[in-house]
Amino acid sequence: MSHTPHELAADFPEYAEQLHKLKESNAHFQKLADSYHAINRDIHRAETNVEPTSDDQLTDMRKRRMVLKDEINALLKSTA
Q1: pLDDT, tens digit, for every residue of 22-43?
Q2: What Å distances lie between residue 10 and 2, 19, 50, 51, CA to CA?
Q3: pTM score, two decimals?
Q4: By C-alpha distance, which of 24, 32, 22 is closest to 68?
């Protein structure tokens, strides 16, 4: 299996421990992380033509990923 870019641990290496703790202790954070992981995987599959999609749909998925990532980043910073 190929490496999927934009994984949370790779994008937030300084928060690796917090990511792990929040996934285990905060249901809202876990839901955000799971949603981020799912959309990120879908984007990667579309970008590598495993599951081709329209440009509009790919753009929409990227926007959703960005919103989730911003929310995750805000939670990480607020618990630091």
Answers
A1: 999 999 999 999 999 999 999 9
A2: 15, 11, 23, 24
A3: 0.90
A4: 32
